[in-house]
Write a structure and sequence with these properties.
single chain; alpha/beta; 9 helices; 8 strands
């Protein structure tokens, strides 16, 4: 097992930024992939950074047992947006970051080997990546994600006026846009394009539980299969550490 922390200058952000990677040393999955590893992009929550998962969860042990690489970037409080006044974090996460890690590390570029997961703000980011680029990601998972962003920016998300303006611009801009997961899902379903496999969970005491129910019901209306789980739990790492183990077991990694 190699735990690697590195920095790169991200052109899309205009700053240096941190990444943590987990690379299993003896994964049996490499043999059928010309020495490359399946990869899980793992996104942090609001107010955290690239170190959140290694500090609070069992991801190192789980990734080693599963034999997959894990890439954990930093995105600040950006909500994985190309910010209205700030860095282009969605461009960075979706374009620049994958190109960087694949150029330096033994990571597969095949769709069937590429997965994304996130917690809270990162759950939104994970589904946004999976739904915007279903041709790139075989599976996406959200743990207690802020999935109904249009409602959150209308006053339920605890954003300061300055933060709202810098990240989103006008709150009215989100609904129906490519940053609205409900609208993106409807357009994807109407196009006939296959969805990535989706996993969604949320604790029943979580303040984002209602937003998760809205997303779940939208998927049911669209007849999109989602592996959904809920149980008692809040917006906390004791719940997410339990569920990331479930996600690693669920990922459709082909042997």
């Amino acid at each position: 097992m190699a735990l690697i922390q590195c920095q790169l200058f991200a052109e899309s952000l205009g700053v240096s930024t941190d990444i943590t990677l987990i690379l299993p040393e003896h994964s049996p999955l490499r043999a059928s992939r010309n020495g490359k590893l399946p990869v899980l992009y793992l996104l942090h929550g609001r107010g955290a950074d690239h170190s959140e998962w290694t500090r609070h969860s069992s991801i190192e042990r789980l990734a080693e047992a599963r034999g997959i690489a894990v890439v954990m970037p930093s995105a600040g409080r950006s909500y994985y947006m190309d910010m209205q006044q700030g860095g282009s974090y969605f461009t960075y996460i979706s374009e620049e970051l994958p190109a960087f890690v694949k150029s330096l590390f033994p990571i597969s570029d095949r769709r069937e080997d590429t997965f994304v997961t996130g917690v809270s703000m990162g759950g939104y980011g994970a589904f946004k990546l999976g739904l915007r680029f279903p041709e790139r990601y075989a599976a996406a998972a959200s743990l207690s994600g802020g999935l109904d962003l249009a409602s959150r920016v209308r006053g339920e998300g605890n954003f300061t006026p300055a933060e709202m303006q810098s990240i989103f611009g006008s709150p009215e801009r989100i609904e129906g846009s490519d940053d609205d997961l409900l609208a993106v899902s409807r357009r994807l379903a109407a196009s006939g394009t296959a969805f990535p496999q989706l996993y969604q969970c949320c604790g029943t005491e979580d303040f984002l539980y209602e937003a998760n129910q809205i997303f779940r019901h939208t998927m049911k209306e669209l007849d999109v299969q989602v592996t959904y789980e809920e149980e008692p739990g809040g917006h906390e790492w004791s719940y997410w550490d339990m569920k990331i183990k479930r996600v690693l077991e669920w990922l459709p990694v082909q042997v």
